[in-house]
Design goal:
The complex is a heterodimer of chains A (716) and B (307). Chain A is of the alpha+beta class and 716 residues long. Chain A is built from 18 helices and 13 strands. Chain B is globular, with a radius of gyration of 20 Å. Chain B has helices spanning 35-41, 52-55, 99-106, 136-141, 157-167, 173-186, 190-193, 206-218, 236-249, 262-268, 286-291, 296-302; strands at residues 49-50, 59-70, 73-84, 88-92, 116-124, 127-128, 143-146, 224-228, 254-258, 271-276, 279-285. Classes of the chains: A alpha+beta (716), B alpha/beta (307).
């Protein structure tokens, strides 16, 4: 053969030294290691700081050069620099006798540090911790004489457990009576008053209530709407016979008509003539009298329960606990104003004689603090006590947002991917949706507050203002117009359909545009029907008139809806990708079996896309659970001991404001009156928040894995 | 609309000139002119060579002057043919000759593509396929279809097989179980899967999946079974199994099969139609098409000398 085919000499081609790519391996590996290190650093920092906050450290007695001394736990230390002395930070508590609860001490001032075995730290219901030496537990008798139950450290320690349990038991009884029994009575009285208020409002507005149209007109309007809608749905079914292959319009029409029927029925119901029938003055009077009677009964019961509580508290306040300061001789007072009396034993939540505890006992204290943290509500401006309401609020919010966002996002994505004619419009919508994901979250908060709380919520609460409402005839005209335009839009959509097997002609195109226009007009009219009805006075007008709006304020429902909106793009994008990843051959197979488009979607496409859809839901959940900024605007509060769930109907109180871990962290760290005391709790709460989000995600991931396994079980 | 892969579209001007005149084998044969093929390539209509036997057949599917366009380009030109009842009919021809398109026109799978337009008539057992009043979904329920690539659904084997019954609203367990067993047996896969009907169908091998798809296609007793190159994605062993299966079920069903593989057509079919560039060229009993065809083009195509 020719020369060209001869093997080239080895010299013409060589391997560059850089071809090995060794530096790239180091670079990429290094980047990964850096990422892992940063994440590990974060996690271990949170883990270390978060888990040590509850460990009971030794109580130091610090004697200073000037002769004074104090008890405290060292929490921090700074080594000296050229300009500063080395110093240590002690938690010294005893705030109620006018002392800073944390104290920096220069090493040079300190004469001696010892660890007296008698020193204890008291965690109290109020005013933070108290450091001191227990002197005695005393009991005051009826006649005013005092008997000493225990004196001296050893005796106190011996007696403390049983006495404290009794005292706390009594305190708890009183507290339960106060919270539950009294709370329930209060609730009943409130609802009676609210009823009266409702009746009064009804009576007061009876004058400006629009004259009622004959029922016949209303029935005709509703029946016409329903019949027309049903007729077109049937027609749509017939026309729908050649569903596949024909550009949209008709299917939208069918669902659209159904939706419009529902909406118009709702509007009709709100405006129904039998709603808001006015009451006469005598009716109102008799109602008032009845209510007063019932209220009096309840009030006497209230007094009875209150007397019980006071009896328990009297009994409880007999037992006093005297714990002295190490110098100065002051004891822990019953309250800041009555500092001549020693405190009640029941005011002590926990006594920690830290210097006497073995490691095992310390661990016991540690666990009991964790338990208290997880199961009780916060005290002392959130710097003490637990986070139970916070956990409940966070979990509920996350669950609700997932429940809202997943179906909505999935359905929207289904339409966008399966039904919508792919074109400029769908591309624009996709771009818009993707951009929504990049909008700063606080913007959603502002929107949520402005739209959900103040517009939608107020509408639900108080209905339509008299100045905005149309006169009845005008409103009925509007109502009919909405119905007629809706039906017309559907009809146009049907007519716009080209004959099967034929390309659309100009007629079809114009009919389709007209149909779209009519749909838009219908939407506007329906909104007007709702916004300008003279017949709707809201569902919670009485409470709103009392100045406590129900849905017209910040609350769990609006917060979860806001977050649902925020996470919607995540779900839509994930679902769209999952649906697109279902191979077309499967769709064809289903059509080939004689399945309709909807059957194909429900039975083949959705199951195939389910793992991807769940991934989207998990991502949305993770994103929503970690969001704080919008919550500050639409519902998270510093303190609300009323959980959003309760045993009272309707069990889930979505209108209540709630506590949220993310906001709680911010509050502890930056809004706390005692930021030094709150700092360990910040770490603990961060740890808890991380664990919670992780746990929620883990549940979802396990769910997905099981689903996936069921779908592809036996796969090779 | 879902976007589908647009089928191979024919653009005559892009084809390389293969058979202006061909000298064959080099050993003394005279050059042969493919007159019909050349006419088709010039875009002229030809008279298809339909064997006499085809005239006396009872046609379950009748195609009359059928034309189909993808947008502007015409994929099927004026095809008329009857598919005989109770037999296996094979459609053969080079890539892009419109054989798959014709098959998919019968159950209107082409409707899934936006730009398709048709003219002419197809009838199934006397009822029209392309009349405006036709319920496409109902039409598809009368036909079974198996595709090139096995396409089981992401569900259990049992649910896969009874899918056509499920979507018709059948819920009685006994009916479903009976139908499942019957059609799995008909598809000769019952023994392999009877112990794992609840397992995912995606765990089966390719050949098993394709037989499952055949079981799914016959479960609702279709009038005609349409097979679109059912073996093209399978290995030879699986192919042989499917071919045996086709011969077996041909006693019960009318089968229309599109195939690339001439041997396959010769093995499984009773009648064969040879198509080229969207036109029917020759149509007759398989034995005649392969041994004594009327046209030299057909002879050369089936013996692999052109195409």
């Amino acid at each position: 053969m020719s020369d060209a085919a001869a093997p080239k000499s080895p010299a013409t081609r060589r391997t560059l030294p850089s071809a090995g790519g060794e530096p790239m391996i180091w670079l990429t590996g290094g980047a990964l290691v850096l990422c892992i290190l940063m994440i590990l650093g974060l996690v271990s920092l949170v883990l270390y700081n978060g888990s040590r906050a509850f460990w009971p450290g030794p109580i130091a007695q610090v004697e200073l050069n000037d002769g004074t001394a104090f008890l405290g736990i060292r929490t921090d230390r700074e080594e000296g620099t050229a300009t500063t002395e080395p110093r240590a930070l002690y938690r010294v508590g005893n705030r109620d006798i006018g002392q800073e609860s944390f104290r920096w001490v220069d090493d040079a001032e300190v004469r001696e540090v010892s660890y007296p075995p008698d020193a204890v730290m008291l965690e109290r219901l109020a005013w933070g911790v108290w450091f001191g030496i227990p002197e005695s537990i005393t009991a005051k008798d009826e006649d005013g004489s005092e008997s000493v139950l225990a004196s001296g450290m050893d005796e106190v320690l011996e007696q403390y457990e049983s006495l404290h349990r009794d005292a706390r038991g009594e305190y708890h009884d009183a507290q339960t009576l106060r919270d539950h029994t009294l709370g329930e009575i209060n609730h009943k009285i409130d609802s009676i008053r609210l009823r009266v208020r409702e009746k009064e409002l009804e009576f007061a507005t009876a004058e400006d209530r629009p004259g009622r149209l004959p029922i016949l007109v209303w029935v005709l309007a509703v029946a016409g709407c329903v019949l027309g809608g049903a007729g077109f749905v049937l027609l749509g079914r017939r026309a729908n016979a050649y569903e596949i292959g024909v550009p949209g319009g008709i299917r939208i029409g069918r669902f659209g008509t159904a939706a419009m029927c529902v909406v118009l029925l709702l509007a009709g119901w709100i405006g129904a003539p039998w709603r808001g029938g006015a009451i006469s003055e005598t009716e109102l009077q008799s109602y008032r009298a009845d209510a007063e009677l019932r209220e009096r009964d309840l009030l006497s019961e209230y007094d009875r329960v209150l007397a019980d509580i006071q009896a328990i508290e009297r009994e409880d306040s007999r037992v006093r606990f005297v714990v002295n300061e190490v110098t100065g001789g002051r004891f822990s007072p019953i309250s800041q104003t009555e500092n001549t009396e020693p405190m009640r034993l029941s005011q002590v939540v926990r006594m920690v004689p830290a210097n006497r505890l073995s490691t095992g006992q310390r661990f016991g204290v540690y666990l009991s603090r964790w338990w208290e943290y997880l199961t009780t509500g916060p005290r002392e401006a959130n710097t003490e006590g637990g986070v139970f309401p916070v956990i409940v609020g966070t979990v509920l919010l996350t669950l609700m947002l997932t429940i809202f966002v997943t179906p909505l996002g999935v359905i929207a994505a289904l339409y966008l991917r399966e039904y919508a004619v792919q074109g400029v419009l769908t591309s624009l919508i996709r771009i818009a949706v993707n951009n929504l994901a990049g909008v700063p979250s606080i913007v959603y908060g502002v929107f949520g507050l402005g739209f959900f709380c103040y517009t939608l919520g107020r509408y639900i609460d108080t209905g339509v203002a008299r100045t905005v409402a149309l006169p009845p005839l005008g409103w009925w005209f509007l109502y009919l117009a909405a119905a007629v335009v809706g039906v017309a839009a559907f009809a146009l959509g049907v007519w716009s359909k080209p004959k099967p097997g034929e390309p659309p002609r100009a007629f079809n195109v114009w009919m389709k545009r007209l149909a779209w226009g009519a749909w838009v007009l219908t939407g506007v009219l329906v909104v007007l029907v709702f916004v300008r009805t003279p017949y709707f006075d809201g569902f919670f007008a009485a409470r709103a008139a009392d100045g406590s709006p129900t849905f017209g304020a910040r609350g769990l429902l609006w917060a979860s809806l806001t977050l649902a909106l925020l996470t919607l793009p995540v779900v839509i994008v994930a679902t769209e990708e999952a649906i697109a990843a279902v191979p077309n051959s499967m769709r064809e197979g289903s059509y080939g079996c004689g399945a309709s488009k909807w059957q194909t979607m429900r039975r083949v496409v959705l199951p195939g896309a389910m793992p991807g859809i769940l991934t989207g839901a998990i991502l949305a959940m993770a994103r929503g659970a970690g969001e704080v900024a919008p919550l500050m605007l639409v519902g998270a509060v510093k303190l609300n001991q009323d959980l959003p769930i309760s045993a009272n109907a309707p069990f889930l109180h979505a209108d209540r404001s709630f506590m949220h871990l993310g906001f709680h962290i911010y509050d502890l760290g930056f809004q706390s009156p005692d930021s030094e005391a709150a700092r360990p709790l910040v770490w603990t709460t961060v740890l808890l928040f991380l664990t919670l989000v992780l746990a929620l995600n883990l549940i979802a991931i396990v769910l997905r894995a099981r689903l996936r396994a069921r779908m592809t079980r036996g796969a090779v | 609309m879902i976007s589908m892969d647009t089928p191979k579209q024919m653009k005559a001007h892009e084809l390389k000139p293969i058979v202006q005149s061909v000298s064959l084998g080099g050993s003394g044969h005279k050059p042969v002119r493919y007159e019909n093929i050349e006419a088709i390539r010039r875009g002229e209509p030809i008279e298809p060579a339909v064997h006499r036997e085809m005239r006396s057949q009872d046609g379950v599917i009748k195609v009359e002057n059928f034309k189909l366009w993808y947008g502007q380009s015409q994929a099927i030109h004026d095809v008329s043919m009857d598919i005989p009842r109770g037999a296996v009919t094979a459609l053969i021809g080079p890539s892009g000759c419109g054989k798959s398109t014709l098959l998919r026109s019968i159950n209107r799978m082409n409707d899934l593509i936006d730009s398709v337009r048709v003219e002419g008539k197809i009838s199934l057992n006397g009822s029209p396929v392309y009349a405006p009043s036709v319920d496409v979904i109902g039409l598809r329920k009368r036909l079974g279809m198996v595709f090139q690539k096995p396409n089981p659904f992401p569900m259990s084997i049992f649910e896969n097989v009874v899918y056509p019954l499920r979507i018709d609203g059948e819920r009685r367990k006994s009916v479903l179980a009976e139908a499942c067993e019957r059609s799995l047996k008909a598809a000769a896969i019952w023994d392999e899967v009877k112990d794992r009907l609840k397992d995912s169908a995606l765990g089966l091998s390719g050949g098993q999946q394709q037989r499952l798809c055949i079981a799914r296609a016959v479960v609702a007793d279709p009038e005609v079974l349409l097979l679109d190159e059912p073996c093209s994605a399978l290995d030879p062993v699986a192919t042989i199994k499917i071919e045996e299966l086709i011969s077996e079920i041909s006693s019960r069903y009318t089968v229309l099969i599109v195939t690339h593989n001439m041997q396959q057509a010769a093995r499984v079919s009773n009648y064969t139609a040879f198509m080229y560039l969207g036109r029917l060229v020759e149509y007759g009993p398989t034995a005649k098409i392969f041994q004594t065809p009327k046209l030299v083009e057909t002879e050369h195509y089936v013996s692999g000398r052109f195409g």
